[in-house]
# Entry
Amino acid sequence: MGTRGGAVLMPIIAAMEIGGWTFAGLRETEPIQMAADGIRQASAIACKKAGISTGPVGLVARPMVIAGLTRLAPRVTPFDIETFFKIHFTKVGDQTLLGLTEWIAEGHRTGQPIDALASLKEALIRTRGQAT
# Structure
């Protein structure tokens, strides 16, 4: 996955896990705002490090756009995408935390905002702690 794609997908996946692995849960006010804010910060950090522009990522980093995508995705995929995301990203959940951790470290190192990514990571850790 490319720099921009990862910066969009990872915060959405983290917020979806926080929302109980459902698109409806992701669309709740707090998770969807966390996803949008996380996308903005992750894309700024990742793209700066890669030496590329964020391109159209800012268009996706809006709760209304994310909500629309979560309503569209189940209609255009030939499988249960919520279940796929839950199964796949639970297996590779350490990568989600690692990605957030790396963006936070890079943002801190370069003086870029990281508060949204830190909040997303903390909420994800709390969510996982409750699931055990």
